[in-house]
Amino acid sequence: MERIGTYAVPLIVVGIVVFGMCRKTAVFDCFTAGVKEGLSSLLAMAPSLIGLVVGVTMLEASGFFTLAAQVLSPICQWFGIPSEVVPLGLMRPITGSGSFAMLNSLLEQHGADSFIGKAASVMAGSTETTFYAITVYYGAVGLKKTGYTVPAALAADMTGMLLAVWTVRLLGV
């Protein structure tokens, strides 16, 4: 299996080049045109991504997620969500790497087989980095107004968080 992974990418690249040559396509010209398009997309998205990274870093450093988790803890306990996973639920729609670092911390503290570890794992797998995805996709096509996208996506994230905890509790796994 390890050999397949080692040879897969070079074989795919060679296959694409051979296929292009058989169709009499200027493969290198197509490649450079794609690179130019990719760079222009990167430049269009860069300000939004930089703003998102700065904002997340500031929120995390200020202790916002911890404070918000404390404020929301009574409501979350009413829904059966352990207070330990609330910061993960708040961070997941904003940043993937930060939320996975938080998930790792929860797993180290409580163990992977604990209810908190299982609920946090399912929560991380059943929600999306909403603001990152919106920034990338809307930035790529140049949309400035998100309309109902953010509220709908956050409602879906909240549903995913609730159902993640309830599913772990219901299945007792």
Summarize this structure as a short list of keywords or feature phrases.
173 residues, mainly alpha, 80% helix
Protein architecture, described:
This protein is mostly helical and 173 residues long. The protein has one domain. It is 80% helix and 0% strand. The chain contains eight helices and no strands. The chain has helices at 2-22, 27-62, 64-78, 86-91, 96-110, 115-125, 130-141, 149-171. The longest helix has 36 residues, at 27-62. The radius of gyration is 21 Å and the shape is extended.
Summarize the structure.
By secondary structure, this protein is mostly helical. It has helices at residues 2-22, 27-62, 64-78, 86-91, 96-110, 115-125, 130-141, 149-171.
Which stretches of 5+ consecutive residues score pLDDT under 50?
A: none
Count every beta strand, where a strand is a DSSP E run of 2 or more residues: 0
Q: Report the biggest beta sheet as strand number plus sense, adding barrel if it closes.
A: none
Mean pLDDT: 85
Task: State the helix count.
Answer: 8
Global structural class: mainly alpha
| Total domain modules | 1
Note the gap between the termini. Answer: 31 Å
Radius of gyration: 21 Å
Helix content: over 70%
Amount of beta strand: under 5%
What's the shape?
extended
The string of secondary-structure elements, in order, is: HHHHHHHH
